[in-house]
Write a structure and sequence with these properties.
The complex is a heterodimer. By secondary structure, chain A is mainly alpha-helical. Chain A has 10 helices and no strands. Chain A has a single domain, classed as Orthogonal Bundle (MetI-like fold). Classes of the chains: A mainly alpha, B alpha/beta. Chains A and B meet through α7 and α8 of A and β6 and α3 of B.
Chain lengths: ~260, ~290
Amino acid sequence: MMSADTMLKRAAPVLACIGLLAVWQLASLALHNDSFPTAIEAIRAIPSILSDKDSLVNFGASLRRMAVGFGVAVAVSIPLGLSMGRSRAVASFFNPLLMVIYPVPKAALMPIIMLWLGVGDIAKTLVIFLGVSLPVIYHSFEGAKAVEEKMLWSGAAMGLTAAQRLIRIVLPAALPEILTGCRTGLVLALITMITSEMIARQSGAGNILFNALDMGQYDTVFAMIIIVGAMGICLDALFERIRARLVRWSEPQFDIPLSFS
Amino acid sequence: MPARDAGMTILPSRSELRPERATAQKTAAAMIEIEGVSQVFQTSTRQEHLALSDISMSVADGAFVSILGPSGCGKSTLLYIVGGFVQPTRGVARMKGRAITGPGPDRGPVFQEFALFPWKSVLGNVMYGPRQQGTKPVEAEAQARALLEMVGLKGFEEFYPKELSGGMKQRVALARTLAYHPEVLLMDEPFGALDAHTRTRLQNDLLNIWERDRKTVLFVTHSVEEAVFLSDKVVMMTRSPGRIRQIVDIDLPRPRRRTELLLDPRYQKYVVEIDRMFDDSGEQPP
């Protein structure tokens, strides 16, 4: 039996969504503007997008680029961030480079990247990679820096070499922080994915959205926003589930989860 | 209050108490020798701070030796040098005659901060060292369970460190270190973060465990009572820069029981006299 409390907890996200849609519906009816369809009109446009083979191919291409960009970024950034956190030499070598890249909007690099690499998969994946890398590097760095020295000493006394300590002590000890970075990175991957497709209009979910905008199909535009938004929510919730499972050992007992999962 | 000059015969005269020179004391039984060790730290203001000054001492095989001193006297640093975690600025530390150049499983540390692996269960923590040394999982687990029972943690094998109290964490840390059979235990104020009651219980248990197999122990503390209760020998240190002030042999029978010892005038005299020696130098008893 579910208690009233857990039932309310489960229902909260759904209620929030319904509330948001209701406000939208009322605002749209009140404003009565062609470029602002009602929530119901937008939702009605969703099935036709999702049943269209072309748009599914586009979604597939988007998700593929996002997965590759995110995966490569995580695979490169975690070892880099951890090494920076444990070695002053590595940190001072990469720090200036990262500090220069950090404040630059990654989408602003898109024109240059397109010029060099074309408008295809490589350019867009690279932008996603850049967007995801920095938060993951930063959080891995902070996580590695915070690892208690005595914990490493304990490992050293057991005979772990420096490399083993990095993989078997620093990595697990910093995992909660690393995964926080990955979660931010995942949302950034979605953002840079759409942005890159807005700029290099060739394929993908962002391309459908902006083509619809050009043609004045506002219900499709809003339907796409709902779809992309829902995608983000689902990915984040899925990731949060995996994260919570991996770092159960570090969670405080009474935690307020900030997720839909 | 015992009279100043009467009844102090248990302590050797001052000339006999000068710091032992390791070179003069080199015997086959010495497990650890520290020879002319000094440690200089760079402070954040770029000044040099002398933490340890010309320390020489030796620890016999199977002895329980405490390093006692006020906070900031460098006693933990000395332990870290023996552990191989810190390299001395000058001098050398040896283990069984070989210069110590880094950490190794022959010297097992137990820290005040516990330093458990929080992502591992209690059992996983205790199995970690033996697994690293290639012990088969089944065997490592059986040994770990036996050790946990010995330190009084049967039934907590699947708990994570965050779910344990401070005293329980330190029991796990002790079991984790004992699990890989170091020849020397290096204990860095292991009970310093615990409340008085837990501290007393852990001292009793440590003594019981130690009296079974008499491993060599180097034990850092700032509690006079703790040092006298546990040790064969107490190395008294001065405030910074840390120097050896005196080495006091604690000639009390073993096995020791707290209830008997607290009533024993010899125990009381050691405590009072060591306290007084700290007083004489204007240094508060730690």
